[in-house]
Amino acid sequence: MAFKMMYILLVVLVVEINSKAGAILDAHYYDKTCPQAEDIINQAVRNATIYDPKVPARILRMFFHDCFIRGCDASVLLDSTPENKAEKDGPPNVSLAAFYVIDDAKTKLEQSCPKTVSCADTLAIAARDVVVLSGGPHWTVLKGRKDGRTSIANETLNLPAPSSNTSQLIQSFSQRSLSTKDLVALSGGHTLGFSHCSSFEARLRNFSATHDADPSFDPQFAADLKKKCPKPNSDRNAGEFLDSTSSVFDNDYYRRILVGKGVFVSDQSLFADYRTRWIVEAFARDQGLFFKEFADSMVRLGNVGVKESGEVRVNCRVVN
């Protein structure tokens, strides 16, 4: 009898802990209400990627920027109104693109399963699918997120900046219950990234009293970047890919950091800091390890700030 009571108490405790942790998401959330949801989203992502190879990088970045502000609630998808400037029009987000991909997926979801699949879940599934389409790992997306009703442009200033050092990044991730390993793994999403000159040109000229370019740069790489980003620069689209295999999800990003070819301060500082250097080296050596840790970290990222109550938007750009 005593053992039975102890078992019941343990079960209650585990359920209570899971509840407090916000463990409301479920891999099978739509199995009965919209079993075709993931197929619909995957097809929309595939179709868009055929016509625009930049879609994977853009969707992955969009998911990260969504989760880091108010949690994974699709607030980044809301349009500004005359009364409110929304997240997508905040300074770090004006370069976000490919919102039409989520719109397309959502339109088809509404035709198939009206008022059922949230925009937040649609974006989370799409982020997984673009990684897989690019040769990266697959993971099971937990579902059941609700859509938020608030989106404020100024809050995007809390996003980690390309100029952030590792201490600042660790603090930012920690505030969202993400570990140092999550930081390094999720930074690997830059394997699909591209940056305009404005995000790194401060490292190229007049960096310090003793160095023109950031000394952590490989000298030849810095010279090449100066040619791509001249002063003055009349090409608004000029910039650099964040690794040398920009359309393939792999561990080249980490291998480049090892040799001083991290484009952002936030990239290269991961190698300079003892807390993260060993993880960068491990991922550079072992792509399989990176894939596993990236998938695990994406699941944890997808749990940030999940809304237990809220709405399922019919149109991802406006509240119901």
UniProtKB/TrEMBL annotation:
Residues 24-320 form the Plant heme peroxidase family profile domain. The keyword Ion transport does not apply. InterPro entries: Haem_peroxidase (IPR002016), Haem_peroxidase_sf (IPR010255), Peroxidase_pln (IPR000823), Peroxidases_heam-ligand_BS (IPR019793), Secretory_peroxidase (IPR033905). Binds 1 heme b (iron(II)-protoporphyrin IX) group per subunit. Ca(2+) 2 binds at T191, T245, D250. One of its GO terms (molecular function) is lactoperoxidase activity. Ca(2+) 1 binds at D66, G71, D73, S75, E87. Keywords: Calcium, Disulfide bond, Glycoprotein, Heme, Hydrogen peroxide, Iron, Metal-binding, Oxidoreductase, Peroxidase, Secreted, Signal. The active site is at H65. Disulfide bonds join C34-C113, C67-C72, C119-C316, C197-C229. Its EC number is 1.11.1.7. Substrate binds at P160. Its cofactor is heme b; Ca(2+). It comes from the Eukaryota. Residues 1-21 form the signal peptide. One of its GO terms (cellular component) is extracellular region. Its main location: secreted. It catalyses: 2 a phenolic donor + H2O2 = 2 a phenolic radical donor + 2 H2O. The record marks R61 as: Transition state stabilizer. Heme b binds at H190. CDD domains: secretory_peroxidase. PANTHER family: PEROXIDASE 16-RELATED, PTHR31517. Removal of H(2)O(2), oxidation of toxic reductants, biosynthesis and degradation of lignin, suberization, auxin catabolism, response to environmental stresses such as wounding, pathogen attack and oxidative stress. These functions might be dependent on each isozyme/isoform in each plant tissue. This is Peroxidase. It comes from Handroanthus impetiginosus.
